[in-house]
Specification:
Helices cover about 25% and strands about 40% of the residues. It is of the alpha+beta class. Strand 6 and strand 7 form a beta hairpin. It has an eight-stranded antiparallel sheet with strand order 7-6-5-4-3-2-1-8, with no helix packed on it.
C-alpha cells in the first residue's frame, strides 16, 4: 500500500514539474513579445504603424482552359487607443468567400495574425481560435515579407515564405 502511494506521489510530482516548465516557457515567450512590443511602440505614429489596408492578388492561369482562377486578398488592420491591433481578413475569388476576424500581435518589425472568429459572410472554415494564420515582417530594406502558417495562398508558387506578397494600399 505504501509503495503504491509513493509511486502515485512520484508520478504526480513529475507531471506537475512538466506543467510548471511549460508555464515558465510560455511566460517567458509572452514577456518577450510584450517587451518587444512595448519597446517598439512609443509615439502615436508607432502605435498606428500597422494600421491600414493591405492587398494581394493571385491568379492561377491555365488550370481551366480559357479562364483564369484568381483571388483577391484584403487585410484591414485597425488599432485602438492602447495600441492593440485587430484585423479583418477577406479573400474573394474562384469559389471563395473568406471573412475572418483576427488579433494582431505586433512589434516594430513584425505583425502576426491570430484567428479569433469567422464573420457571418464566410463560406467555409477549419481554423480554431488561436491559430496563427500568417505574419508580416519588415526586412532591413524596409520591404514587407509574408510568412504563411495555417492560412495559405491558393496558388502553390505563392506559398513560399519570405516573399513580398501583400502591399499596403491605404495607411
Amino acid at each position: 500500500m505504501i509503495n503504491k502511494f509513493l509511486c502515485f506521489l512520484l508520478v504526480a510530482t513529475l507531471i506537475s514539474c512538466g506543467k510548471k516548465e511549460e508555464e515558465r516557457q510560455q511566460t517567458e515567450l509572452n514577456a518577450d513579445i510584450y517587451n518587444e512590443t512595448a519597446a517598439g511602440e512609443n509615439s502615436a505614429e508607432e502605435k498606428n504603424k500597422w494600421s491600414g489596408r493591405y492587398g494581394f492578388h493571385e491568379s492561377a492561369e491555365g488550370i481551366t482552359p480559357g479562364t483564369a482562377q484568381s483571388w483577391d486578398w484584403e487585410v484591414i488592420v485597425e488599432s485602438d487607443e492602447k495600441g492593440s491591433y485587430k484585423a479583418r481578413v477577406n479573400v474573394d475569388g474562384f469559389q471563395t468567400i473568406v471573412r475572418i476576424e483576427a488579433d494582431v500581435i505586433a512589434t516594430d518589425s513584425t505583425a502576426e495574425f491570430i484567428f479569433v472568429k469567422y464573420l457571418p459572410e464566410n463560406m467555409f472554415g477549419s481554423f480554431k481560435k488561436g491559430d496563427r494564420l500568417f505574419g508580416f515582417r519588415i526586412n532591413e530594406n524596409g520591404e514587407m515579407l509574408t510568412y504563411w502558417d495555417k492560412m495559405k495562398p491558393y496558388v502553390i508558387k505563392n506559398r513560399k515564405d519570405g516573399k513580398i506578397t501583400f502591399k499596403k494600399i491605404i495607411a
